[in-house]
Write a structure and sequence with these properties.
Blueprint (H helix, E strand, L loop, with lengths): L3 E6 L7 H17 L2 E5 L10 H7 L9 H10 L2 E10 L2 E9 L5 E5 L19 E4 L2 E7 L6 H9 L4 E5 L7 H15 L2 E5 L15 E3 L5 E4 L6 E8 L2 E8 L4
Parallel strand pairs: 1-2, 2-3, 7-8, 8-9
Antiparallel strand pairs: 1-12, 3-4, 4-5, 6-7, 9-10, 10-11, 12-13
Helix pairs in contact: 1-3
Length: 249
């Protein structure tokens, strides 16, 4: 892992795209000031995890409300991965929008849905690989990480980093974290997990976002809820982490 990578454990305001975009931009700028070249946010971070609002809140890559994130990416040289619903001919997807410094926007769509999500969303197939300073970063959204085949396919495609935006509750965090740690050691991947910092959509969050190195060693983790930036970089062959607790509302 050559570039410095960041995980945002952030809060989202229900349905407030403009306010959430502003907050994402602030966090991305803060990460960039600390040398980060990529930052990943939680699942549906731009709208909150709000399935009942998702159809009305669906975004496209050209939505003018997303311009502040594109500008931060371009000016600060940081790739921003943020979550939002997106409509295609196939239906409504849970997506991750990837804003690149050169102005390109890539889109990943969640491949596997949690039970109950099928009432609102359809599975997607978009799966871009992010090339960054010699690293190949593969994306995942929440339930994707519960399917071992998803991480295995990322590794077979040549990924060196597996980056997941999630919403994980206190009851699920131990099992899900263990599974992600195992993917890191089994496939030799640096694994990033970005969880929500506060409740969203009526769901409690465990927080506890984390980064694991290729051996499955947890190099940095957030302790419970609350907004944090997690950063990881390689120094003399060792992945080292840094945790920054934030006072940003």
């Amino acid at each position: 892992m050559n570039p410095r990578l960041a995980v945002a454990q952030s809060s989202s305001i229900r349905g407030d795209i403009t306010g959430n975009v502003t907050h994402h931009a602030e966090l991305a700028e803060a990460a960039a000031r600390r040398g980060a070249r990529l930052i990943i946010f939680p699942e549906l971070s731009l709208t909150g995890y709000e399935p009942d609002l998702a159809m009305r809140l669906a975004l496209t890559a050209n939505d003018p409300r997303l311009r502040p994130l594109k500008e931060v990416a371009e000016v600060s040289g940081i790739t921003i991965v943020a979550g939002a619903p997106m409509m295609t001919k196939a239906g409504l997807h849970i997506a991750a929008f990837v804003f690149r410094p050169a102005g390109e926007t890539l889109i990943y769509t969640k491949h596997h849905l949690h039970k109950g999500e099928e009432a609102f969303f359809v599975p997607g197939t978009l799966n871009p690989m992010i090339e960054l300073d010699g690293e190949r970063i593969s994306l995942a959204i929440c339930a994707d990480t519960t399917h071992p085949s998803h991480a295995a396919e990322a590794a077979r495609a040549g990924a060196s980093v597996y980056a997941a935006g999630v919403l994980i509750t206190p009851g699920g965090i131990q099992a899900d974290s263990t599974q992600l740690r195992n993917y890191a050691s089994e496939h030799g991947l640096v694994v990033l997990m970005a969880n929500h910092a506060s409740p969203t959509g009526g769901w409690a969050t465990a927080g506890r976002s984390a980064i694991w190195d290729e051996g499955g060693i947890e190099v940095v983790t957030a302790q419970g809820e609350g907004e944090s930036l997690l950063l990881a970089t390689r120094e003399k062959g060792v992945v080292r982490g840094e945790l920054l607790r934030l006072s940003v509302p």
